[in-house]
Amino acid sequence: MKILSVIPYFYPAEFFGGPVKIAFDLGKELVRRGNEVFVYTSDALDLNNRVLKKEIEIEGMHVHYFKNVSMFSVKTSKLFLTPEMYKQLNLDLSSLDSFDIIHVHEYSTYQNIIVRQLAKKYGVPYVLQAHGSLPIIGREGRRWIFDAFFGHRLLKDSARVIALNRMEVDQYSLAGVPHEKIALVPNGIDLSQFVDLPNRGCFRKKFGLDENKRILLFLGRLNKIKGLDTLAIAFKQVVEESKNVLLVIAGPDDGYLNSLKNLVCSLKINDNVLLVGPLYGDDKLAAYVDADVYVLPSTYETFPVSILEAYACSKPVIASKVGNLNDLVLDGVTGLLVEPGSADKLARSVVSLLNDPKKGKEMGLNGRRLVYESYNTGRVADLLENIYKTIVCS
pTM of the full predicted structure? Predict the structure, then answer.
């Protein structure tokens, strides 16, 4: 099949989180299976910088980076405007050698507006994968306008919508999508990246940490929604009860870094908290390897890739009981679930795992088995290929 993937940001723009990795790993796997994969995206590398190349082949995928009209709109409102994409897509879809299917990622984007318009015009089917972005969280005015003028039509005209879990199935249903158009496909990761992991101690050595230091790791965007305030307050209790423990917070600033620094300072836990900024590639893997526990105390999540990565590195996970994380974090088996916003319960869970490393190791191994059995990219590609073929052949 000839597949077009449309996403506002793409590799190497790892700043923008999970959807970038999911689209990248899926594209690689689809190419490996003999499909021809094209990616149309914007040139945003992060909130300030652009990808310099316009076209490139990455892992067999033909990637086209279209210029954002303004990086100011990207930085201030995460609005990715790529009018040149409209011209190219119009040209592509009008040809005899058009794409068989289009897979659009995220929900309220300029790119989805033009895909819906042109795909309908030329009769090319598209599937929509919102990646948890369907609920209105912030920018309420802009979302109301998008839903009123574009969103309902975008959902209505899609051949299928992809839900990551049961919670997202319900979100699509509430938005008016018929049940028969909703396909349940979980996230998956490319497990080949976790076969040859960095040696234990590489992360500690890089940052000059004691080899006996016990590490609690958070890795993700530094955003209020990630529950970092609860984590900092909980960690103060952990420090008071446990010795030689360090909280490592890794990830790009998404508007909460200064608030987090001020909170850490006011709690007087500066000496026990290490802010390392974003980590990618082997540096990220090294952080997972050296961590004793991975923690994700978010107030909202759909299907965080970081939990799958922690599992692939055999690490136990402590996460908030939000969304469908009780399906992903098996309480008492692969990790522990806590009530969102409860610093006391989070602290007790962290201390319990730090004080019982044997239990933590057992949970980590259970998580590794789970991700290999259920959340690998190959399994996800099987599901999506069947969906694509059903649509194209109908």
Answer: 0.90
